[in-house]
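pinned: reference chain
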Amino acid sequence: MITVDLHGMIVVQAKKHLEKVIKEAPQETKEIIVIHGHHHGDAIRAMVRDPNQLRSHRIARRKYTQNQGETILVLNA
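pinned: its structure tokens
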């Protein structure tokens, strides 16, 4: 499991950083916890949760937790 904190980034930076993390994650990584914030992280949260904005063949699905400031990306094995 990998945790990525996107606080302090703009959407373009966050997307580029997250795509790099997904691409470079070891094959055995099953989940990436993305911390994007809730109160001021709406644009980044929308990007992370929208399959049309954040695309990768490694993302199997997105899980939403009770914490609205994070999204879990479940990766293909």
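why pinned: The first strand starts at residue 2 and ends at 5. Helices lie at 11-24, 42-49.
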